[in-house]
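Journal club side-thread
Mid-discussion, someone asked how the predicted structure for our own chain would compare to the paper's figures. Pasting it here so we can look after the session.
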Amino acid sequence: MRVLIVEDDSRLASLLEQGMREEGCQIALASTGPDGLAAAKSGEFQVIVLDVMLPGLDGFRVAKELRRSGNRTPIVMLTAKDSESDTIDGLNLGADDYVTKPFSFDVLMARLRAVVRRGPALNSIVMSVGDLVIDGDRHIVSRAGQALPLTPREFRLLELLVRCSPRVVPRQTILEQIWGFDSEVSENNLEAFVSQLRSKVDAGEPKLIRTVRGVGYCVRLEGNL
């Protein structure tokens, strides 16, 4: 796995580099926002570990510029900040996951492997199923031309289901990718959350969000397999 670590804490960066090399990763390091941005644009990386508090440019601005320029390399934000607003900011700007300090190295590696398995975001991030349209750049969802007021987490879940459509996304995959490996969200919580999302997306016809009992959820038009 080819990893770019953008971290200004030299001790933490060194520990991450050593641990990841022991896991067989190829590592590049940057300690400032501008250096990290330049490295990300010039290198072929499978994932970027991006600190938020960086000199020159903070991690949010680096992530925003990468996505604006069309770079879809998965990003895992790494920061001491843990407020919900910081998490939402990072995810809305294009981060794929968010890990707060202090953290377990094993958990971080599991998160990195998960986003690498998913691969880079699609170059064309306007996706549709029927009259449902998701504009990833502008973070807008519409149905039959009407904008839907989704929360950031509802947006991420719907985007995941549409990206995988018409395939079924297993419940455990949803829990890991939307809430994280160490989340305490239960399957009952997930069912309630999907019901809330369905009330917004499927207020009219045809219904698109489908439950596959014992497996998970999908977005598909009736008759599409």
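Post-session note: The radius of gyration is 18 Å.
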